[in-house]
Amino acid sequence: MCCESKRRFLLLYATQKGQAKAIAEEIQQQAGAHGLEADMHCMSEMDKYNLETEKDPVVIVISTTGTGDPPDTARKFVKKIQDKTLPPDHFAHLQYGLLGLGDSEYMFFCNGGRTVDRRLQELGAQHFYDTGLADDCVGLELVVDPWIDGLWLALKEALQLQKEKEGMSNAVDAVSSSLPTALHAVHELSLSSEVQNLKLEDEGARASDVLSRKLDDISPVAPARGTEPSLTHSVPPVSQSALNIPALPPEYIEVQFQEAQGENPHLSSLISEGTTFEVPVTKAVRLTREDAIKTALLLELDIADTAFEYQPGDAFCVVCPNNVSEVEELLHILGLYEKGDSFVCVKVKQDTKKKGASRPQHIPERSTLKFLLIWCLEIRAIPKKAFLRALVECTSDAGEKRRLQELCSRQGASDYTRFIRESNVCLLDLLHAFPSCKPSLSLLIEHLPKLQARSYSVSSSNLYQPGRLCFVFNVVEFPAGPSRPVSRKGVCTGWLAELVAPLLHSSKNTLDAKGESSSTEKISIFPRPNNAFHLPADPSVPFIMVGPGTGISPFIGFLQHRQKLREQHPDWEFGETWLFFGCRHKDRDYLFKQLRCFLENGTLTHLKVCFSRDSSTAEVAPPKYVQDVLRLCAKEVARVLLKDRGYFYVCGDKKHMADDVSDAVVDILSMEMEADKLEAMKILAMLREAKRYLQDVWS
């Protein structure tokens, strides 16, 4: 029950990886200081709230996943409000404010939030506060912090108007006299351009002036002269500023060590996304030469005895553990190494001040300490500011304490971005940098997010290789740097590479080998179907594939599938196929030289390759990148897209490739249609809308 002395508002969140929930919890926590009470629920808990009868203001925090989809926890809600039989005044009684989370590296920025916002408007709901769109590419906090600052004034006015409508205006006279007239100083916060970014900083500063948090009286620490700022050191003005730091998050977890033994939970119990399948690795092949800059591996899985189904173009997820040596290092620092194999019981503290506290769903009630740290918590996660704030209380050295306060403060926002966020700093890095910081195990459980399964594109066809699933990946490398004392491999790719190392040295493990492997290594996977990135339903429709590096992965499945269809249906008409592939060196990282086989048997009509780091003695230098080769084939590309109504697929790196390919296509359309660039961009947008220009990209 909500406290009657405080005015209630409904707070809904929909999260995929925990960001939206953490922000909603921050709003709930701050509400009390403003005389308000947040009735908080996950959007999926539709039995605990009812927007059809809701009278109080509603605050929504929602993330975006995949290629612009609402998070899994919002799917039922979105499906319900998308009902076309709902009248346009269905939510005419509803007042709401929405904060969307997204990443501008992806095409459909904040589309989860935009979808809900747009539909609520169509059904008659009214904004009591402008929509905020936060960009994880540059830092969510740049929009989130000022949006929350401005929220309280907007909520109080909405509640005041609601009371007046109910004939209770006399009860709010005192409140109304204190409200400023210029309420909507914080406009829609969307970091879609540098101009808006500058505008946001200015507005955020004004909002902060109106609603500044209580200043912590922290003594500034003077830095050594001539020093540059770093993870552990600050310089003026940050080092000499009084700091606005977040409120200390309330503790809510307690951990009890138990003598009794038992069994750890099965991995499948940790996965909320659906059925998991434990499958053997039957083949592992290194696709790059030893001297290549990146190491690319192909793994083959045996799914014959499972109900796992997929189409070429689908993705799937691999359930992976944290690096065991990193977990052991963490246990040493925490002074818990001897207790690694002991069972721990995780419960909610009885006297916690956290509203609606519950044990996180990804944390088993009982398991060994090592199991918890290896399989449940993302120990490589970039620490959020709330976590840094909590770590302050676990730090004994005054200088270290001050620096952690700076990094989580409003004044230290740029330092946080530079030395934490952009440097990919994790908990272990922080504990090395601030050795007097000794957090408790319960604090880690409260603040470290769920260890996420990693997603990979399928690189095979079940029609071509029944009972087999292949995928390709680069082993990710994080070099040592000023904020990271040691180099590390990617959580999942590093683990997979180590797991299959014995297979890599087997002579049977070549792309052409058909023999069964004696490997007993198994991994747990679950499907992540892609609703759009599939072959055209009509085989006579031509299509273009652009996939440099490991971006070629799904197109191997496309071509295998097409080859089998051609064998099975010789009377069918098949459209032409184009593949644009690029890599650094022809002799080091040309991942699939057998592409020539698809060319020779007619499955692939045109193969265009380029090598960005190979030197050339030719008079005219060959093109280096796939976007350059596309421009050389401008007439054919335009014909396939415009005249033949074909499809265009792009897979690979977003930041350094997919945007350049998109720009090249705009240039091609503009040139071949003899239209201006704006018109060409509209054509490309229409192709995207018609699902004929499709991307499977990552940042």
TrEMBL record:
InterPro entries cross-referenced by the UniProt entry: CysJ-like_FAD-binding (IPR003097), FAD-bd_FR_type (IPR017927), Flavdoxin-like (IPR001094), Flavodoxin/NO_synth (IPR008254), Flavoprot_Pyr_Nucl_cyt_Rdtase (IPR001709), Flavoprotein-like_sf (IPR029039), FNR_nucleotide-bd (IPR039261), NADPH_Cyt_P450_Rdtase_alpha (IPR023173)
Instruction: Keyword check for S-adenosyl-L-methionine, yes or no.
Output: yes
Gene Ontology annotations of biological process type: cobalamin metabolic process; folic acid metabolic process; homocysteine metabolic process; methionine biosynthetic process
Superkingdom: Eukaryota
Q: Where is the FAD-binding FR-type domain?
A: 274-536
Annotated EC? 1.16.1.8
Reactions catalysed, semicolon-separated, are: 2 cob(II)alamin + A + 2 H2O + 2 H(+) = 2 aquacob(III)alamin + AH2
Q: Which GO terms describe its molecular function?
A: [methionine synthase] reductase (NADPH) activity; flavin adenine dinucleotide binding; FMN binding
* Pfam families membership: FAD_binding_1, Flavodoxin_1, NAD_binding_1
Location of the protein in the cell: Cytoplasm
A Gene Ontology CC term for this entry? cytosol
This chain belongs to the protein called Methionine synthase reductase
Q: What lineage does the source organism belong to?
A: Eukaryota, Metazoa, Chordata, Craniata, Vertebrata
Gene of origin? Mtrr
